């Protein structure tokens, strides 16, 4: 059999996926939001354009969505509001704006997230809700606004405060990353790492060879807060707050808004959206549902190896004198 082009691979996968019916077909419509071929290509990229493997991956994703009732997760608010605030205070993620190309900019506080104020189920629920809101609301809206498919985002990872205690959360982080790898593949265009201390440099050097080249090409470790580099792809107003340090922006930009805060417009809009959909489905005021339980996938062998490697390297670096110092971008390969 000759080499199949990317377009031919998409055609083949589309023929296979057209055979699904019932709940699987309905949930796939939620996934592609009218941008069928762009979303089929995501699964093909994740499986190196092997149609058979991509088909299996996509079917597994659709079954997971149906079994875990993912289609209804945007009508399942985390309540009471105090609990949602606790989740936001300890799972630092937010959206600060858009790139000039229209891609959402998600900020993640890797180093200062503690994941210690709620059960693992609430953190997984919150993460999936943000994924689904991005895919069902933000990306379709930006696609219409820009007149072209926008199906990915960029992520800015703040490593401020990264230290050995982060190992206590490595299992939860592995669960979340596995959910993303299996069910939301190729949704991130680029990862920008900022405020990276020595311990990140040490871990990155040993973890990088374990990752697929497709992934490592997306990771860019920036010097310091990364402000200068990020301003090449986004306006100042879209910079995450932790990238604005030392800035002399114009007067109406000097107020730095914490995009991790539950009071940030993104989180307020997301929570209002979820609560509204809960109420319009006739459920009235949402009751505390004991969290929305989602089936956790077993991390693959690669994920387990990476987690063990990070743990080992962080232990080695525990007594390093430069543990808390930001790393110069020249010491880490982008």
UniProtKB/TrEMBL annotation:
Domain CRAL-TRIO: 80-240
Cited InterPro entries: CRAL-TRIO_dom, CRAL-TRIO_dom_sf, CRAL/TRIO_N_dom, CRAL/TRIO_N_dom_sf
Disordered, as annotated region: 314-334
UniProt superkingdom: Eukaryota
Protein's UniProt name: CRAL-TRIO domain-containing protein
């Amino acid at each position: 059999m000759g080499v199949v082009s990317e377009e031919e691979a998409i055609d083949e996968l589309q023929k296979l996926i057209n055979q699904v019916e019932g709940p699987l077909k309905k949930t796939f419509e939620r996934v592609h939001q009218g941008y069928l071929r762009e979303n089929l290509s995501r699964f093909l990229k994740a499986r190196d354009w092997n149609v058979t493997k991509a088909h299996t991956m996509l079917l597994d994703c659709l079954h997971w969505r149906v079994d875990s009732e993912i289609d209804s997760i945007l009508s399942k608010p985390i309540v009471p509001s105090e609990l949602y605030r606790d989740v936001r205070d300890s799972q630092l993620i937010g959206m600060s704006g858009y790139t000039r190309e229209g891609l959402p900019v998600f900020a993640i506080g890797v180093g200062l997230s503690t994941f210690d104020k709620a059960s693992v189920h609430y953190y997984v629920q919150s993460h999936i809700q943000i994924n689904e809101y991005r895919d069902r609301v933000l990306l379709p809206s930006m696609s219409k606004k820009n007149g072209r498919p926008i199906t990915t985002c960029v992520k800015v990872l703040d490593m401020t405060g990264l230290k050995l205690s982060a190992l206590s959360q490595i299992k939860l982080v592995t669960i979340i990353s596995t959910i993303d790898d299996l069910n939301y593949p190729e949704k991130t265009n680029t990862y920008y790492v900022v405020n990276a201390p020595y311990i990140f440099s040490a871990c990155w050097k040993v973890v990088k060879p374990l990752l697929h080249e497709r992934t490592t090409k997306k990771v860019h470790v920036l010097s310091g807060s990364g402000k200068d580099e990020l301003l090449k792809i986004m306006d100042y107003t879209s910079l995450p707050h932790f990238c604005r340090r030392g800035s002399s922006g114009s007067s109406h930009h000097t107020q730095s808004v914490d995009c991790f805060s539950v009071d940030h417009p993104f989180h307020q809009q997301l929570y209002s959206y979820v609560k509204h959909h809960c109420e319009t489905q006739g459920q009235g005021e949402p009751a505390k549902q004991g969290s929305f339980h989602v089936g956790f996938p077993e991390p693959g062998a690669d994920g387990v190896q990476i987690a063990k490697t990070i743990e080992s390297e962080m232990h080695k670096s525990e007594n390093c004198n430069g543990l808390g110092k930001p790393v110069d971008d020249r010491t880490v390969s982008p």
